[in-house]
Amino acid sequence: MKKTFTLQLSPQEAYDQDIFRQVVLKKAGLNADEKECFVRQVKRSIDARGRNVKINVEAELFFKEAPTPRFDPPTQYKSVKNSDPIIIVGAGPAGLFAALRAIELGVKPIVIERGKDVQSRRRDLAAINKEHIVNPDSNYCFGEGGAGTYSDGKLYTRSKKRGDVRRVMEILVAHGATEEILVDAHPHIGTNKLPVLVTKLRESILDAGGEVLFDTRVEDFILEGNELKGVITQDGEKILGLGVILATGHSARDIFELLHSKKVLIEAKPFALGVRIEHSQNLIDQIQYHCEVDRGPYLPASSYSLVQQTQFKGKQRGVFSFCMCPGGFIVPAATSPGELVVNGMSPSRRDSKFANSGMVVAVELEDLPKYQKYGPLAAMHFQAEIEKKAWEVGGKTQVAPAQRMMDFVQRKSSSSLLDTSYQPGLASSNMDDVLPDFIAERMRFAFKAFGQKMKGYLTNEAQLIGVESRTSSPVRVPRDRESFEHPELKRLYPCGEGAGYAGGIVSAAMDGERCAEKLIAAYVNT
């Protein structure tokens, strides 16, 4: 017998497995010591709107029968070693999932990654943090797994394609993610667990006869008329395939430059730019969970989502939180020497004493008149110039410029800074020396509004750390809405965040799968 229940529970009832089991058995009219039953949660979300936090849980109880599996594991990938190849540039979520989908469809993927495998990549991350050395091919953005590997591993997406979302989640679980990601409304994996999972995804590709080439940077395209036949690497090696899925991520500026130099149609794209803001996690918990001391032993570190429309010189733009990392760390995410970029990440336990979030302002192309001379690379050049300025203001290392929140709002210099999770260190700076006025003034207005929405959020016990500039790609590589193929260059399939079609691990993975399907339908199964 199987029964389902919709429950509203206390944090202890929801997160203590023994107590949760007792609650469900009681609801079902069974004895607490009943042996022949199995209880599990199917969906779980936190409702913190009232004074007492409640957990909404959908639960299943199996009585005197074995529980059905949560999902059917993916079938064994068949060998594609001798099949026709397609080329996938980039081993982030879009590239890896494109490769797995190609294998399922009987096609051999050749994945080309400029960076290193996840284990080797760690040394380069340590060099950024400790020695302020930026390897332009191996960093927090480039390398196996892409920018998502050393991040929070957030899996929440606003995509309406729920079947595709579930499929991505199930593939992740089959490769080592906990089944909790199938339950939580806002699932995440954690930066400490992602490297193992990414390694297993790669192993599935290799075991099926696909190829993954590390330390291999694409420097040129092989063009014949209006068709893309392959790519040329930094060593001069020519790699040919039936088509190219371009999944390079939002920071591969050299690829955007290459496309532009080859007169391949690309477009400047709006994006968002601002800072990371860091509070103590305890303060955010007190605000969000209405607790006087701390959140207690059961609730997870709380997060927030904020947005505010602002007016400046007659133009309306949104200011919004981005990639909020509860119990997390701020990391240096530069991809070239001479620039400073910050990003956030969290371990699976989200147990750091800090909460950080991107706090960014929408940047439209009309905001950048003096950059229009760069054509489709206008927003990219603006982004790069701000990052260079942050590097200079911070002292020309990976030490980041920072300012206390109220000091920024009141235009005061910060005589001292707070403790921080940012390992390279902070330099007290005026953020107005880094950010243009159309960004800084909007942020001041928004911070005051956020202080009204979340009492206690606007405080000098928080600090701005800059700059958060890699929110999304500043360039779009266009593609046909139906075929996903570039409108002018045949066999080119722009994909994922870097091309402007995704915004996170799950949406990038889904886009990778769709690009593989479209390419194979057009050029393999014909």
Structure explained in plain terms:
This protein has 526 residues and is α+β, with helices and mostly antiparallel strands. Helix content is 28%, strand content 24%. A seven-stranded mixed β-sheet has the order 13-14-17-12-20-18-19. A five-stranded parallel β-sheet has the order 6-5-4-10-22. The chain has a three-stranded antiparallel β-sheet with strand order 1-3-2. The protein is globular. The protein starts with a strand and ends with a helix.
Blueprint (SSEs and pairs):
Layout: E1 2-9, H1 11-15, H2 17-27, E2 37-47, E3 54-63, E4 85-89, H3 93-104, E5 108-112, H4 118-131, H5 162-174, H6 194-207, E6 211-213, E7 218-224, E8 227-233, E9 238-240, E10 244-246, H7 253-261, E11 267-268, E12 271-280, H8 281-289, E13 307-312, E14 315-325, E15 329-332, E16 342-345, E17 354-363, H9 378-394, E18 400-404, H10 405-409, E19 426-428, H11 437-453, E20 463-468, E21 475-476, E22 492-494, H12 496-499, H13 505-523
Parallel strand pairs: 4-5, 4-10, 5-6, 10-22, 18-19
Antiparallel strand pairs: 1-3, 2-3, 7-8, 8-9, 11-21, 12-17, 12-20, 13-14, 14-17, 15-16, 18-20
